[in-house]
Amino acid sequence: MSRILTIAAAQLGPIQRSETRASAVARMIALMRQAKAHGVDLVVYPEAALTAFFPHWWIEDEAEIDSYFEAAMPSNETAPLFEESRRLGIGFHLGFCELAHEEGRRRRFNTAILVDKSGAIVGKYRKIHLPGHPEHRPEAPFQNLEKRYFETGNLGWPVWRTMDANIGMMICNDRRWPESYRVMGLQDVELIVLGYNTPKHNPPAPDHDRLGNFHNQLVMQAGAYQNACWVVGAAKAGPEAGVDQIGGSCIIAPTGEVVAQAVTEGDELVIARCDMDLGRSYKASTFNFAKHREPQAYGMIVERKGAGPLLSA
Ligand code: ING
């Protein structure tokens, strides 16, 4: 009996600074209802899907910063999404900015949750690779201040058994780092879901801009193939609060092939039937980790943060 999950990457167009959470949630519910008509089991929404991506601008007022965070999940504004999930019997992934109170202090994370078909939160992940810079760069056309507004995620990369599959999460910049996939690959992950906000222009490296969509797919295809798992990426796309962001939401098979992708930069469902057993032949041969990996040779990957002296020196 094959384990088919029909999955939708629910790409969102821009959420402007003036747009309310209620409006964003209404857009997401509309996509969830469309997904139901296609027999979808799991809907993947983007990173920071409730508001404009505020790390793109410098904010000093603490209350204004907190206004982009969720102090509860679900909250009054997001409860309708959970209720619709339960009513339709559809699970979902949601990226949002989490305000937590742990170890006696207020803590801010770039977070994602996995919700099952009963509307219950199965798992939570907090973004580990925070790109950009903590300081204000007034000369740049926009900022990327995730290192200022968020703490590094402290939950690792867990994998959960739900919907009869091993499902894990990462967030945006995590997808560019092979370690993110491999930690989950070593837990026999079968599906990784992620959201992203990726500007078309990268101020510190404008010569990379022409390759934005290529790099987006390259890293997810590599991660999928090298860990024999499905990867689903959902963009917050289009011109948002003065920053133009790539779309390119897609569903990638354990073969490394892109099986479905977005063709707009707005709200768009990208749907595919995903056989959770498709990675088995790779995990039994090419990527049989237990048989072929050589961890004793990999020490440098964990011991060093940045590049260091040549082993041959
Ligand atoms: N955004 C971007 C990302 O990793 C970025 C940062 C943009 C990196 C362009 C490289 C090039 O997709 C987030 N939110 O991580």
Automatic annotation (TrEMBL):
List the CDD domains: DCase (cd07569)
GO MF terms here are: hydrolase activity
Q: Where are the transmembrane segments?
A: none
- Do the record's keywords include Hydrolase? yes
Asked if the record carries the keyword rRNA processing, the reply is: no
Domain CN hydrolase per the UniProt entry, residue ranges: 5-278
Alphabetical list of Pfam families matching this protein: CN_hydrolase
Q: Which UniProt keywords apply?
A: Hydrolase
What the entry lists under InterPro entries is as follows: Aliph_Amidase/BUP, C-N_Hydrolase, C-N_Hydrolase_sf
Protein name as annotated: N-carbamoyl-D-amino-acid hydrolase
